[in-house]
Structures are given as structure tokens and as C-alpha cells.
Design brief:
- The complex is a heterodimer of chains A (113) and B (114).
- Chain A has 113 residues and is mainly β.
- In chain A, the strands form two sheets. In chain A, strands 2, 4, 5, 6, 9, 10 and 11 form a seven-stranded mixed sheet that branches. A four-stranded antiparallel sheet of chain A has the order 1-3-8-7, with no helix packed on it.
- In chain A, a hairpin with a 7-residue loop joins strand 9 and strand 10.
- Chain A is globular, with a radius of gyration of 13 Å.
- By secondary structure, chain B is an all-beta fold.
- Helices cover 0% and strands 54% of the residues of chain B.
- In chain B, the strands form three sheets. In chain B, strands 2, 5, 6, 10, 11 and 12 form a six-stranded mixed sheet that branches.
- The chains are: A mainly beta (113), B mainly beta (114).
- The interface between A and B is medium-sized, with 28 and 26 residues.
Chain lengths: 113, 114
């Protein structure tokens, strides 16, 4: 089966500009996750979707971050406006039953200058 | 809240040798899941091995095995016959029995030398 697909792979933007990341999960995986991984650290959950519903967005900085998952398949994560501290790798993952582990995409490396 | 601690920022091992990566965690739950993920320079997180807390038997996947000590809340990864392709960042992760959130440690960089 095809893996989790993310785009773009790299993105460099100036601070205060908007940016969006896209994720296509594995077919049949109802749960989708966005994680942020700062340099030299482990990933941290930003938001979790069950189908179209965001069921855990407690760690999402809602003043500048937004996400959507239309029709319970693809998802987009947006930052507007970006700040220097947003530079990180943004990972998308999906699962059918989470306790078997998640399948991750290759991530988007964001650099804000 | 659950926390995961990896106390070794970096480790090195000679090719064909054995190396053990350490992980401890903190939780008040009795049923949960533990994972080791590998992240090579390509950035994709790859599941290496998984352990269910209610199982006493340590999980094994080919050259990878774990030493799960539930009372000590310890979950170490042993890599036997290390290969150059094992060079990567390794993350220990915890998940509650609800299966709805993976919590990661800070990672250990493993370098396999020829």
C-alpha cells in the first residue's frame, strides 16, 4: 500500500508570511495526526483527527495555526503568520488502530527566515 | 501526564557488534503500549518494535529485541549484529491503552562505524 504522503518536502519563507502543508494518509486510516518536531527533539502532537473531526487540538497554537481534514481523507495544516520559532519538521501520521503504531510521512522541513 | 526519558543523547557501535539504547517512562496506568521508532536522515519515522504492557514476554523483531521491565518502567532496545544502515535517530514512545496519542522521548542518535 502507498504510504503517508506529505508535501512540500522543504519550505523556506520569511517571517509573517503564511504557509500550508498537505498530507494524504494511508487509505482506510480514519485517524490522522500532525506532529511538530523541533531540531534534536522528539515529535510533539499538534492535532488529531478522527475522520473529519478534530478530537484533540489542545497543543495547537490556535492564534496562528489552523488545520482541516475535508471528507475525512486529506488534511492541510496552515500557519499564518509564521514566526521564527515555527522552524521545525512537521510530520503527518495516520492509523487504523492506534495501538498498533502510526505510519508517518517524510515530513515537511519548514525554515522561517 | 506521561513522560518518556532517553538518557543517552548519542551512542556509537562497531559494525556487527551489539548495542543497547535506554528508555524509561512515567505513567500511572497499568495497560499501555511502548514503541521504538527509527528516524534516518530521510526523516521518515519507521516503526522498529512494539510491546504490549500486559505481555511479560519481551518483543523481538529479527535483530531487534527489547528488555521490558514494567515495575522499573524501563524499556530498552537491543540491536544485535549492528549494520551501517542502522545509523539513525531512535525514539522511544509511549501510548495509553486508548491508543490515541504517542508520546515520544528526545531520541538517541546511533552511529554504526565500519
Amino acid at each position: 500500500e502507498a504510504g503517508v504522503v506529505q508535501s512540500p518536502r522543504y519550505k523556506i519563507i520569511e517571517k509573517k508570511q503564511p504557509v500550508a502543508f498537505w498530507c494524504n494518509p494511508i487509505s482506510g486510516h480514519n485517524t490522522l495526526y500532525w506532529y511538530r518536531q523541533n531540531l534534536g527533539q522528539g515529535p510533539e502532537l499538534l492535532i488529531r483527527y478522527e475522520n473529519e473531526e478534530a478530537v484533540d487540538d489542545s497543543q495547537l497554537p490556535k492564534d496562528r495555526f489552523s488545520a482541516e481534514r475535508l471528507k475525512g481523507v486529506d488534511s492541510t495544516l496552515k500557519i499564518q503568520p509564521a514566526e521564527l520559532g515555527d522552524s521545525a519538521v512537521y510530520l503527518c501520521a495516520s492509523s487504523r488502530q492506534g495501538w498498533y503504531g502510526y505510519t508517518f510521512g517524510s515530513g515537511t522541513r519548514l525554515t522561517v527566515v | 501526564a506521561q513522560t518518556v526519558t532517553q538518557s543517552q543523547p548519542e551512542m556509537s557501535v562497531q559494525e556487527a557488534e551489539t548495542v543497547t539504547l535506554s528508555c524509561t517512562y512515567d505513567t500511572s496506568e497499568n495497560n499501555y503500549y511502548l514503541f521504538w521508532y527509527k528516524q534516518p536522515p530521510s526523516r521518515q519515522m519507521i516503526l522498529v518494535i512494539r510491546q504490549e504492557a500486559y505481555k511479560q514476554q519481551n518483543a523481538t523483531e529479527n535483530r531487534f529485541s527489547v528488555n521490558f521491565q514494567k515495575a522499573a518502567k524501563s524499556f530498552s532496545l537491543k540491536i544485535s549484529d549492528s549494520q551501517l544502515g542502522d545509523t539513525a535517530m531512535y525514539f522511544c514512545a509511549f501510548m495509553t491503552s486508548r491508543g490515541n496519542k504517542l508520546v515520544f522521548g528526545a531520541g538517541t542518535i546511533l552511529r554504526v562505524k565500519s
